[in-house]
Amino acid sequence: METEESVRGDEQGEKSGSSDEEFEKEKSYSDVNDEVQIEETEKIELMDYVELDIEEFMKETGIHLFQDKEEQTIWATDDDVIRVHTDGGKIVGLGMDGILCEEKSKESIKKEGYPYTLAGISLNDQISYIKETVLRDACYDDGMLGEEFYSSLYLSKLGIETLQVIHDGDKIRMLSTRFDQSLKDNSEHLEYIWTDRIRHKEGTKNDKLEAVQEPYAHMPGGYQGSENIEKTVVWIKYPTLEIPGEPEMTENANAVIQEAVKKIEDNTYKKTDKNIVVTADYKINYISGEFISISFDVYVDEETVEWQFCNINISRNGEKAYLADWGITKEKVAKECFLSEELDEEDVEEYLKNYDTNWDQYTMFIRRCVVFVKDPDQESELCASKDWERSVRWYRE
Questions:
Q1: Does position 159 have pLDDT exceeding 60, yes or no?
Q2: Per the confidence metrics, is the pTM higher than 0.85?
């Protein structure tokens, strides 16, 4: 990993000061790990005991649970604040509920807090504080009425793929998650170190662009929206990833990202002799100890919005992630495609032929999968605005 560069510049495009072709800035995304600093309390962390069977869990935590008479896989405290789901006596899910519990407990939690935490979070905690600490680097999806869903490497290390949080204003009122022992086992040794890099090129001939020696930290506004473009400007921000102790995984993951960046170039300025301005930035939609899903927003002359997607399978040594790796079958994709009224049948059939190779024709969110079934006659491989209307979306099981 190269040395860290400081960022100088603002949204007006001040030079970053880097002498390299590509500007970089090291940062953390979803790798909170052991660095998360939370307030010191005497609260009991439930995830510390989740690997125990239900009887040992009650003994070690001091929490007395009652088995539901109808749903015998559900155990709860007498005030219904803590709920535990089991399978064969083993814990597979945990939840803390300050909304539907008994009124006396609800008022006590609001007034005094709660003596237990789930992934370092407790009922009545401030969601604003939690987002800056425990969940500061997590990806998230919004639900309805204060409902949010989170994923991160930190959560994966606890065996949590998705953490559901419900808050009322700034106060957390409900927490819920499933426990996956294999996710915890596969994630415990991992660390993600992310670095921002910028590829900045300019020139009057698209096949002879030159790298800018001091790239912009932010794309200057003067380039965007220009009616008369005198030269081509390409500014692409993309991440690189280091996974300490995993050199091959690191190399594979960065190769997948580089292939996505190359597709942005191949399908923008490399496809025309016309001078254009290309701006691309990225965001991570999903991250865990098993998968990473990245999307790039690509602007051409600030008018055309397109997307490039990039999916990485960490559990398979950082290689490309295909839909099948997520447990999404070809039959599932076919069903969702044919249910859509936006798609032509021949386009769906053509997409399904490449079901096992489309690593960048979908993006994964925490709860949603979005598949882009493109017109095979379309010139660009990038997904454009009109493709979003033709996309197939469903909630992940």
A1: yes
A2: yes
